[in-house]
Amino acid sequence: MNEEEKNTFMMETMRAIGFSKTEVNVQRLKWNYLCFTDNLFQIYDEDLLETVHTGSAADGMTGGPYFSGEPSDFDSMLVLKRVQLLSDDESVNVLYTREDMKTDFSEDDIMKFQIRVQAEADREFPGYYKLKVVQTYVDPEVFINKDGHYYLQNYLGRLEKTIYDIANRSGLIQEDNYPLKRSFKTSLRSPHGPASTSKGSETGQSLQHIRQMVGRKDKQIEKYIEFEMDNVDAILYRGWPEEANCWISRVRPSGWPNRRTMEKIRSSPCYLAPAGHFDSHDREIQWRLSFNHAEQILVEEFSEVQIATYALLKIILKDYIKTKDKDTVLSSYIMKTIVYWCSEKYEDEFKDTNFFPFTVFCLKMLRKCITNRHLPNYFIENRNMLNSKFTSEAATSLIKDLDIFINDITEVVVLLSFQKIFTRSSEDRSVLQMAKCQSIALGWLEARLGILERLFFIGNNNSLWQNYVPYRPKENLNRFTLLLKYVEKFPGNLWLFKRLIKHCMGMLSYSVYLRGSRACPGYLQMAKELLEQTEEVDGSGFPLKTATFYYAEGEIDHAVEICDRVLNRGAQVKHRGRYVDYLYEIMKILINQIIKTDDQEVLDRLMVDIEKDISGFEDFTIFYSRNKSEFEMSLLNAPSIVCGEMCFDVIFMAAEIEMLPLPLQFEIVSNGIFTSLPIEQTLGLRIHPTLYALFLKFMCCYKQRDQSSCRKIISTMTVLQLQIEEYYHVLFHNLMASCFAILAEKEAAAFHIMESLKIDPTNNNVSFWYLSAAIKNFMPLFHQFNQDAVNKGHRCKTT
Description:
The protein is α+β, with helices and mostly antiparallel strands and 799 residues long.
């Protein structure tokens, strides 16, 4: 092959292993979605301002199933809300402590920010700041005292615990009650450089793992994998840093990035990350300026050649340099910085035939920086990214490694990351084209089903209610209205997610209407419109809540119709907890179909449809066409079909209490009746869909005075205990007791009350209320009987 053919061949290879512009966009859209949903539920969080996904995953640079290199890491930045950075025009010269602040602020206002700091630029180490504490509700002794001032240390473990303890003592943090428990962070993270490492099996990771296992018969595909995620605490930096003004004004021979992108970057937020400079004596109180948002915008502007070059530099780093020196000073971030700099200076076009020349151009610049032991930060030029830890011996070794690829860039083909694709394709470009299309199709499928996986956890794990205030429907309605506005700003349709939020708004609108004694019919109309739009959100939970609305409004037939519809989906409801397993099975089936497809025309048509789809991501439109093969239809329609199989539990929040049948109102408030916890802290109730469908249908039939149907429903409910999880058994007996009590069958009601108390003999169980009420009602009769006996001279003896 001549040089032009070599360039074209390697570009096609990079696309085949997952670094085409389309596949990178698909992965980036998925991570943008996950980040967006994380932040949506943190709008009212007391501790976190936002979560920012960083690193290769957020850039979409994870590689495809034919990429056999090291998997990318998953990083996130947790932006703290309780530490507030003063703007440049704000100045505080006196340290305000807790006692000082109590005279000027209310307790609630103080707790909103906890700590206010001023940023002092470190002139010796550009891009680093010291954060002087000027206002604190926390004991100043937890900070570092230097030259008569207190500074915020960049390991926040002790500080986090102090803030948590103060908030807990003041009653501002409460453990939520059964059954909707949420976990609060009480343990401290250990530092790992500027980041702390945690392990987990976050949604979306497992599906990506399955996609990456294509062609690997030597390893078993696991549904839940353990992976590491680096978390960095950070503080929001207001405005554009003065130190970075040179980035705005400098001359760029290539014209990259363009003026529009630069303006977008200048208006994006920056952060201060807890990392001190290696050579600084003050590194424990230094915070490093982070341009994470700006960097993601730049990667979005990358051409396919820039994407491929960035990926290839990372491959050289991980497959060659790090195998010889695992502690090398080079990192993926340094490689990305080199691509940024070279993109500004490279004056030729970013086209396929210039792939190798541009890559070598980047390697030569990196070599020059290593020789001089000086690599300027892309945004702050006078900050050297190579510190004194980078010795001349390490520099000499790195230069030798880089020279191998500078002298002959085709040496990259022997690296591990290309092993799988070259085993399959050799030099057959048609196979590479097919592999690229298959990789994009697999990436699209994984992203689509990954979003559904996240939606399932959102709907079933109470994420929607993280912004919720108990017993305040109007305030909650305002909050969910704001959430919907945020959703509208997301660059994608988010059709299903909007429906989830609109359904909550419909239920809350109706609660406001009822709480206002039905005096504001506008809220009733709003509730009806929103709930009619969202009746088919899932196969059980949300429709049954809509049925409750119809029950409360006296539209009994409509409520019964929905209950019957849910009951007819018995198998789907029964296996709702295995929905993620179902996703995995569907994905494995479709993966096998994709990798067996060798018809290039079919694959090309798929690429056109996928390109159209990602422009309006998360619409779940079904792709109907007579010209499509059965395989195309099954693949493209999979997200919509799988979405239709989603089922949730029925969850009622305390703000919706007015519309519920009386027994469920008792369940929600029972936590506050016998305990020291006020009712306002009770969040809500989770119910098995089949149990609730039968109970609500019973209540509907009772309203219609159809006792025959009521008894048939009770017979069906009786055998339900053996079919539902133990978690719901207490509620099952309580609802059975209510049904029998309504039918005046007191012995059967008493039996279920006692069965309920056998399982949960605590005062959180509403059966305590039932038992207490029965005793209270009985005691006046007992006293009257006793008095009558005394009057007759036959006093009743009691023990």
